[in-house]
Amino acid sequence: MSAATCQGQAGTGASVSWASAEGGCTFNLADNITNTSTPIAVPTTTGTNFSWIKNLVIAVTVTGTTAITNRTVKMGSSPSTGLALFWKDVAVASYVQAASGNRPTASGSNGATPAGYTAMTTSAVQYDNTSHVTSASGPNGDMAVTVIGVDNTYVGGAGTAISLPNIVLSYDEA
């Protein structure tokens, strides 16, 4: 049995293009991995604003003779007060380009979870347990579609270098 080599990737564009996300993603109001010129506004009154979506996958970059199952998502550490990460499981075939029209609707409550999403924690949570062989390169299994919420209790200030927890995508291979 030959193990595959995998990479965390993010999808962007109208016709999806997958690129390494292992250097990090900038959560913003843009369809890209690292743009810093479209920040998320911190609400001036009670409420939560959300980023545009980030479509994340575990992608096979060097094929193998195994199969991947038990895809999980978690944060590597806890975020600052007023920041929260969220995820949902979406089939790769249902990819949609990040845009203002599929950004979760802002909430009038602090700490709100957007509809259809689950709050990300520091404990791994399974988002896809289907078995997919590693004999083909590219996305393996479903996407973990992610967003960040910023509420008005966030006191870190504006900027382009706000530190967020690492998003950890894990899997089993046999």
Structure write-up:
By secondary structure, the protein is mainly beta. The protein has one domain (5-173). 0% of the residues lie in helices and 39% in strands. Strands 1, 2, 3, 4, 6, 7, 10 and 11 form an eight-stranded antiparallel β-sheet that branches. Strands 5, 8, 9 and 12 form a four-stranded antiparallel β-sheet that branches. Strand 1 (5-12) and strand 2 form a beta hairpin. The chain is elongated and about 55 Å long.
List the helices and strands and how they pair.
Layout lengths: L4 E8 L4 E4 L27 E3 L3 E9 L4 E9 L7 E8 L27 E2 L5 E4 L3 E2 L4 E2 L3 E9 L15 E7 L1
Antiparallel strand pairs: 1-2, 1-4, 3-11, 4-10, 4-11, 5-8, 5-9, 5-12, 6-7, 6-11
The global form is elongated
Whole-number total of structural domains: 1
Largest sheet: 8 strands, antiparallel
Report helical residue fraction.
Answer: under 10%
How many strands in all?
12
Element-level helix/strand string: EEEEEEEEEEEE
The gyration radius over C-alpha positions equals 16 Å
Query: Which structural class is indicated by helix and strand composition?
Result: mainly beta
> How far do the termini sit from each other?
8 Å
Low-confidence stretches: none
Average pLDDT, to the nearest integer?
95
Total count of helical runs of at least 4 residues: 0
Taken as a percent bin, the fraction of beta residues is 35-45%
